[in-house]
Amino acid sequence: MSTDSPIEPCTCVALRRATRALTASYDAALRPAGLRVTQFSILRRLERLGPTPLTRLAVEAVLERTTMARNLDPLERRGLVKIESGQDARERVVSLTDIGREAVAAATPYWQAAQARINAQVDPKAVAALADALIAAS
Are 93 and 83 in contact (CB under 8 A)? Predict the structure, then answer.
């Protein structure tokens, strides 16, 4: 069956493409600091929260617990975070190390430059409104 009307663009595909481009832009900006935007985000979140159970950190970052654990592995190997047992032996508590704090401080100017560059192209209020609308619809 054929129609003469154009195919409507898929919103999901368009947003995924935009997200990939945005991530690549932040990753490129943070490259001199040796971090990816996902790693920087986790380190900043830990800086704000302090020592945090892995499960809560995953919830805060809107990630699955297993995904968060995979993201923490390279950060722990580099000495940027420390993962220890909590009060319950099954609980894992993640802390930012001094080296991790230094990494956040070193990376922040690169992140700020990327943020300013992107905000000059896309109105942050429009992004927030789109995010709110999509969350409300789900």
Answer: yes
User: Residue 90: which domain range?
Assistant: 36-137
Q: What would the DSSP string read from start to end of 55-108?
A: HHHHHHTT--HHHHHHHHHHHHHTTSEEEEE-SSTT-EEEEE-HHHHHHHHHHH
The reply to whether 104 falls in a domain is yes
pTM: 0.87
What three-state secondary structure class fits 53? Answer: strand
Tokens of 70: 């995979």
d(CA 128, CA 22): 15
Average pLDDT, the chain: 93
Would you say residue 22 lies in a domain? no
